């Protein structure tokens, strides 16, 4: 498994989100300029898993965004890993994660 | 061995049990089921409460500022502190403070000033890096990471696997081969600062565990001063072996804590859940599972407390510590497995903590020396070294 998500981006639309299942996992949101702005997860308390979380993202962000996801039972450790990888690659967390960073996020230097 | 609890022990256990029930469990109702940390404000508030209770720094020797609590009581408390969803790998989310790495108590005074004391004060955190991709149970042969002397420094190259907390730590203990011609006697322990050039956390290793996740480390021409050699060169394995064995006993006790809670949940559920018109508690199949769990819990608890009792009194305890770790980790796994069976479909959902305990307990049969190594220790001690 790659430490980075290398899947293609998909448009964050009702049609594409409706096709998702209610799995646990992690996801990323990209804004209209192509900037990765948020890393999130669908955890044990997420209603309808990834589909529910991305429906919520769509409702709050509106059209024009992209997303990609990864189904993972280890969503919590994967979520933290993705945040650390982003911080290592870009020197900071994604813009929308900076508002509510995890209390004790570590440091990574992935290859 | 004294069988009864003293009044002081009983009071301590009641206090901690109430703390877990009233302060920790309600927080978990709002957290993700796989969460391993709480809000910093909650953490500060709870740490202050624990300090008021005089229990902060559990596991830290009294001469280093820890509460003056004997090992038997520490084990009894470990059984209480782990009785919540994250309790196995994040007992009470760390608000009781952490005991430092046992090896650091053997450090030089200069090293203690730079590493041990700040850690005991909660200002620094550390990791322990022994295991490599080539193995963890036989480090004398498995260690490929090398350290070569260069003037006043050592230059470390290699990698480590399954290292918890390295991404958050300020420093760690890294074991490296300093004499390739020797096995066990060619390994040295180094104190490595994580901000040193050449220290890399390459990835998170995703396992069954939700808390205290493991990482993979890589060292590329990492320079460490000779003053950061812990103990003697080539004697890395001799440092604090008694303290390390001793730490296995509360580790075993924590396994029992979650299993005790699982058994309590099972009994409560059996008394309220009806099938075919009658309560589960009336079904012999369920009763026997609960009885089997009780046998596992009581026998394992006895072994844990016996090991603690002997270690506390300075008696030889290597066999007892190995038995405690072996039996407690395996028994706890069986207990939680049966608890899930009693709860049926609910047992495997994230609505209950059982599924997390089931996953995380599986690791306890491998971590801190797998069951097979514990059996090896016991066999060597009861049969005799000549047969190994």
Give an overview in words.
The complex is a heterodimer of chains A (111) and B (388). Chain A has helices spanning 14-18, 49-61, 75-90, and strands at residues 10-11, 25-30, 36-42, 66-71. By secondary structure, chain A is α+β, with helices and mostly antiparallel strands. A 4-stranded antiparallel sheet of chain A has the order 1-4-2-3. The longest helix of chain A is centred in the last third of the chain and has 16 residues, at 75-90. Chain A is globular and about 35 Å long. The two termini of chain A are 13 Å apart. Chain B is of the alpha+beta class and 388 residues long. Chain B has 10 helices and 10 strands. Chain B has helices at residues 7-28, 40-52, 71-81, 109-120, 139-142, 241-272, 284-312, 318-343, 354-364, 371-383, and strands spanning 126-129, 146-150, 153-164, 171-177, 187-193, 199-205, 214-225, 229-230, 274-275, 278-279. In chain B, a hairpin with a 2-residue loop joins β2 and β3 (153-164). Chain B is globular, with a radius of gyration of 22 Å. The mean pLDDT of chain B is 94. The A-B interface holds A 1, 3, 43-45, 72, 74-78, 80-81, 84, 102-111 and B 32-40, 43, 166-168, 194, 200-204, 206-207, 209-210, 213, 215, 350.
Features:
heterodimer; A: 111 residues; alpha+beta; 4-stranded antiparallel β-sheet; 4 strands; 19% strand; B: 388 residues; 10 strands; 15% strand; globular
β-sheet strand percentage of chain A: 15-25%
The helix tally of chain B amounts to: 10
The N- and C-terminal alpha carbons of chain B lie at a distance of 32 Å
Radius of gyration of chain A: 13 Å
Oligomer classification: heterodimer
Q: What order do the SSEs of chain A take from the amino end to the carboxyl end, as H and E? A: EHEEHEH
Helix content of chain A: 25-40%
Major sheet characteristics of chain A:
4 strands, antiparallel
Measured by DSSP, the beta-strand proportion of chain B falls in 15-25%
Which parts of chain B are unreliable, with pLDDT below 50 for 5 consecutive residues or more?
none
The overall strand count of chain A is 4
- Give the topology string of chain B: H per helix, E per strand: HHHHEHEEEEEEEHEEHHHH
> What is the CA-CA span between the terminal residues of chain A?
13 Å
The helix-and-strand class of chain A reads alpha+beta
What integer value in Å does the Rg of chain B equal? 22 Å
